[in-house]
Amino acid sequence: MSLVSTKRLTLFDWVNYSLLALISLACVFPFIYVFSVSFTDPKAYIPLKFYLFPDQWSLAAYKYILSTNSFLNALKSTVFITLIGTALSIVTSFTFAYALTRKTMPGRSIMLGAVVFTLVFNAGILPSYILIKSLGLLNSHWSLIWPSLTNAWSLIVIKSFLESLPSELEDSARIDGCSDIGVFLRIVIPLSMPAIAAFVLFFAVTYWNTYFNALIYLSDSKKWTLQVLVKTLVIDSDSTGVGQAGAGGDDRIVPQETIRMASIMLAMAPILAVYPFLQKHFAKGVMLGSIKG
């Protein structure tokens, strides 16, 4: 007697799996091409040739990019915006959402209505630009942080998650003499670590990929983020002067295409490296925020 019954695959299953495999390959091939070209030796690089694997491996493009002031400045700016922005966004979102869960808080309904209102209506680009300009934040990294500290969707999901926590724990803490701040720091925050991990990833990816706001608020190229620099390299690399000198101080000119691909890989690498460690918390946090009771 067989312990496991094997399901026979039908013709539909084979066609379905085949199509999914082709779609997956179509999605993966661009990444393979970018990776291969970025590691291709400048001497062996041939324009308009498809590289599945480099003919000759080389770190010339990476060495050159990491030696340029433009890339290092963009990297510093992006790291600063991501670290500071993510930390402030987590603090703002969870404290605001916790306040919205307190039914006895004065003005709770008005604030909750204002949050929901922003889901439907948006001020637009021009009022946002005028506001940033009036605050004196133009050409400052803070112009990319303050307007993005939180959003309505995050607040609603976090509020739903916090309301799903056992209220008996908070009641017990208050009986022991804890204030609202004490309950928040000692009870709510430790129980919210899966949700915090999920939103750390959400906010970090958002700040790391900041492009449009950086494009309109930052006029100084020394303060550009990685995404703006990569866009400039990919679309008009000549304007940055990248690739006009040899990598490592030699006379060899690094091909523009390898520089473009290497810059794309460097821009993606940090998020790709961090995501596997937060994946289980990410999935758990999202599920916990969607279940109440």
From TrEMBL:
Example of a GO cellular component annotation carried by this entry: plasma membrane
Domain (ABC transmembrane type-1): residue spans on this chain: 75-278
PROSITE patterns: ABC_TM1, PROKAR_LIPOPROTEIN
Any Pfam family hit: BPD_transp_1
Compartment(s) where it occurs, according to its Swiss-Prot or TrEMBL record: Cell membrane
Primary location: membrane
Membrane topology recorded in Swiss-Prot or TrEMBL: Multi-pass membrane protein
Highest rank taxon of the organism: Bacteria
One Gene Ontology biological process: transmembrane transport
Keywords noted in UniProt: Cell membrane, Membrane, Transmembrane, Transmembrane helix, Transport
TM region positions: 12-35, 79-100, 112-132, 183-208, 259-278
Family designation: Belongs to the binding-protein-dependent transport system permease family.
Protein name: Carbohydrate ABC transporter permease
Source organism phylogeny: Bacteria, Bacillati, Bacillota, Bacilli, Bacillales
